[in-house]
């Protein structure tokens, strides 16, 4: 049973488990907490955070430091100080924090253990609160700001993805480093499992591509953080709402979290865009042509879709990078003005190409990254105040500048006049660099998402997000219809193995926004691996083969499922997902991948998918169309290296 716990000061012992006990008492109008670290040998690093609901957050210190000071800067003169005085007493580490709080506010205690030497101990909860209970609360009278000062501040160690998709601990801050806070992670060694997650719009959740020392972590989750200010060594963090979720299955815990996040981030407006990205299937030009597209190529592939696939619900196309007028010197876009198209490639105009598509029953989306402009752009010369950051051959635009917002609105108005129905917006996380004094990187990204939604709503356009942080705020913007949850498809087998694994572990984002696992392809050897992923994900589905390369038989044969893909629970402790399933109410679809080069003998135990071990089931392999007969309890089979099978199991 999934449990969500919020802990307050109603009892003198507000939190207790096998290694931590938090006591609370009040003296002379001040609230004191005593933290007893019992069995410190479990941990390399321990940090705790105490959040005052409606007041100022106290964000805890690592016990390896004897003293930390924190103060708010609300302008109201309020100051609170927290002290940790470490003592060793009968092998217990005692921490005591003293700080002033507002008496009318309850307290929420969040305890975080970040790097584990031995299996994580079982959590003992006092009075679990149901999922329907109110979780968290606003922190800070001015939005929850907590200022941390000091030289080389040691704070929550970050979990940073390396090239292999695993996470390493980073704990030291220098004046030019990026800094993030792991607020979401899952420990499978827990008896019930635990997820600590933000509900705030000012926290981001990143990928699920790996484990670390046998422990899978849903990390890093990035707080509302920006680059440290070297002049005063100040970092600004913003927190709003946090929750703790317990469940033995990480997928269930994350689903619970996503539903809670949605509840706390209701849509700000009605959706005006057509719901076609998820109800229909599509095509994207990127894999087929890269940026070397032109009018003839697009219309040729449109004719192919209309003649061969339109009857199979292929309804939309993305004209990807290459249509815009650029100062391109390499693969990266350097648009001079996102309202201008390349007249040599599209001599009849984008409006003509879009009209041809619409006349044949297809909806058109344009790719763009309108927050970047080439350094040689006349707009940069005319509006130097638009520049926020240098990102190579382009400048990043300042989303807090009213002129930039007006420019974005005019881009959408221009596309609407061309007949475009939606846009794919790329490189969104670049807006992280838009932090400034008083406005952090998270605020910049959220402001950008807000502006995109406002523009799209006015023009009834849909937005497909690419390279966007996974934030609870995604559900606030209904015209932002879908978001990528994986890296780009590549030609390297191991790259695509990580793509498949990351996408499957991000399926829970579908409770906030439709998920896009990137395009699929129908040429060997990638076909089965990627198409199986897209089928099981059952969300945004589009292919990216040219008319000459596409396999019509594959594209016509794909069923539309009803459920949501899930990896098996043990997949969360490994880098690569090898088994995932989708139950649509009638049939169970099970995808099995072999990421090794060698042949493997696999065994599917039906009970792991919720099936009755005593009942016989009919099993068919989707790709070979082979009927494998009826099986009870399990299915044993051979799987070639680098290949995939998709089983359909029914009564």
How many individual helices? 10
Q: Output mean pLDDT.
A: 68
What is the topology, as strand order, of the major beta sheet? 30-29-28-27-23-22-21-31
What's the end-to-end separation, in Å? 28 Å
What class do helices, strands and sheet pairing give? alpha+beta
Percent helix, as a range, is: 10-25%
Total beta strand runs: 39
Low-pLDDT segments, ≥5 res: 1-24, 29-194, 205-240
Biggest sheet layout = 8 strands, parallel
Proportion in β-strands: 25-35%
What is the global morphology? Answer: globular
Any idea what the radius of gyration is? Answer: 26 Å
Describe the secondary structure blueprint for this structure:
Layout: E1 3-5, E2 13-16, E3 20-27, E4 30-38, E5 43-52, E6 58-59, E7 70-71, E8 87-89, E9 92-99, E10 107-116, E11 145-148, E12 154-161, E13 167-172, E14 195-198, E15 204-205, E16 211-212, E17 215-216, E18 221-222, E19 235-238, E20 242-246, H1 250-264, E21 281-284, H2 286-289, H3 295-308, E22 314-319, H4 350-359, E23 363-368, E24 372-374, H5 378-382, E25 387-390, E26 394-397, H6 402-418, E27 422-425, H7 441-458, E28 462-465, E29 480-484, H8 493-505, E30 514-516, H9 527-537, E31 542-543, H10 552-556, E32 566-567, E33 579-583, E34 588-593, E35 600-605, E36 616-621, E37 626-632, E38 634-639, E39 644-650
Parallel strand pairs: 21-22, 21-31, 22-23, 23-27, 27-28, 28-29, 29-30
Antiparallel strand pairs: 1-20, 2-3, 3-4, 4-9, 5-6, 5-10, 7-11, 8-9, 11-19, 12-13, 14-20, 15-18, 16-17, 24-26, 25-26, 32-33, 33-34, 34-39, 35-38, 36-37, 36-39
Helix pairs in contact: 3-4, 6-7, 8-9
